[in-house]
Amino acid sequence: MMLPPLKPLPMKDRVSMIFVQYGQIDVRDGAFVVIDQNGVRMHIPVGSVACIMLEPGTRISHAAVNLAATVGTLLVWVGESGVRLYASGQPGGARADRLLYQAKLALDDDLRLKVVRKMYELRFQEPAPTRRSVEQLRGIEGARVRETYKLLAKQYGVDWRARNYDRQRWDAADIPNRCLSAATSCLYGITEAAVLAAGYAPAVGFIHTGKPLSFVYDIADLFKFDTVVPLAFRIAAKAPINPERDVRLGCRDLFRSSKLLGRIIPTIEDVLTAGGISPPEAPPESVPPAIPNPQTLGDAGHRTQ
């Protein structure tokens, strides 16, 4: 009997993330499984996860990567405790009209400023100051962010100096910075999955520029201080032995209870709509696909088979 083709689920219907360490990921009997050193299999419902974080000691087969791409699940290769990003797959981003729309907004100075002002409004719940450039708004934002760190540290009784860490000497960072880095890493992972699922490019940012994940940082910042940053300070106040693990578990529960995955893509659309233009229409001379794309349950950027 032929099984129906696999189709991606929309982001809003998925769980946020899974971390995998010390195991071989493969497809056995049609299932996405992690096999430990004793040969014990653990099934992962890959189609219902937004992203899978692959930590050191993890190997993954070609069949498993293919299955993850088919169901629109982002694979992210990270360092120990998920605090360094080495590489990521790209199961989405397959919408030329949306990529051109995003690029046009980013390249036009006036349109870009409108988008940045909308981001400022969503982040701080007040209109952006008038007659300010993108660079000036970035400076105002930076000052407010530093002050917010201080206020949260005082609220949770955490000894706070500054946001500071060395990627080459991770363990030398203090507990608050380790908690914050682990928390933002989790947020960036699911945000990248949502950006790709919506059909946009992670690298084409508006406030952040010049980084492979500039747009991911832009969108994640809209949620950061309502979600993962307070969580990080709350955990840091307990001085845990393994802060990164506690943060990951806390983020997983927070993302589920706040229904964050269901909010990211609508926020992306809301932000870009502030530019006041529509996605470009196909030119008259363009040739439609010879084989029409099949209907899908997933989001606009998910690839269809």
Please mark out the parts with pLDDT under 50 across 5 or more consecutive residues, or reply none.
Answer: none
Outline, from the CA principal axes? flat
Radius of gyration: 20 Å
Strand order of the largest sheet: 1-5-7-8
For the record, the count of structural domains works out to: 2
Strand content: 5-15%
The total count of helices amounts to: 9
Query: Can you tell me the CATH topology of the largest domain?
Result: Four Helix Bundle (Hemerythrin (Met), subunit A)
Describe this structure in words.
By secondary structure, the chain is an alpha/beta fold. It folds into two domains: 11-88, CRISPR-associated endonuclease Cas1, N-terminal domain (Ribosomal Protein L15, Chain: K, domain 2); 96-273, Four Helix Bundle (Hemerythrin (Met), subunit A) (Up-down Bundle), CATH 1.20.120.920. Helix content is 43%, strand content 12%. The protein is built from nine helices and eight strands. A four-stranded mixed beta sheet has the order 1-5-7-8. The chain has a four-stranded mixed beta sheet with strand order 4-3-2-6, with helices on one face. Helix 3 (109-124) packs parallel to helix 6 and helix 4 (134-156) packs parallel to helix 7 (228-236). The longest helix is centred in the middle third of the chain and has 23 residues, at 134-156. One of its GO terms (molecular function) is hydrolase activity. InterPro entries: Cas1, Cas1_I-E, CRISPR-assoc_Cas1, CRISPR-assoc_Cas1_C, CRISPR-assoc_Cas1_ECOLI, CRISPR-assoc_Cas1_N. Pfam families: Cas_Cas1.
